[in-house]
């Protein structure tokens, strides 16, 4: 369900590679409604939690790794 559909590549004999444009990803309506339903449930659970301010701050923070920081070695 969460994996995007892969399109088959055109064979080399089928036209020029520069003539074709890649289409941008468009989410289906079913996927959009499912995402809204999940988001509503997650927000409801966060708002009911006593540390909701900290949770909103944590979830809205940017995440990034620097050099020599490996995700599989992190401990929380």
Automatic annotation (TrEMBL):
Signal peptide: none
Coiled-coil positions: none
GO MF terms, alphabetically ordered: RNA binding; structural constituent of ribosome
GO BP term (any one): cytoplasmic translation
Keyword terms of this UniProt record: Ribonucleoprotein, Ribosomal protein
Listed name of the protein: Ribosomal protein L6e
Superkingdom per UniProt: Eukaryota
GO CC annotations, alphabetized: cytosolic large ribosomal subunit
């Amino acid at each position: 369900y969460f994996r995007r559909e892969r399109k088959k590549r055109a064979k080399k004999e089928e036209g020029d590679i520069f003539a074709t444009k890649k289409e941008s990803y468009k989410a289906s309506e079913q996927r959009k409604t499912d995402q809204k339903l999940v988001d509503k449930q997650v927000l409801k659970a966060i708002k009911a939690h006593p540390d909701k301010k900290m949770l909103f701050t944590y979830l809205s923070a940017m995440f990034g790794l620097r050099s020599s920081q490996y995700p599989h070695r992190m401990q929380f």
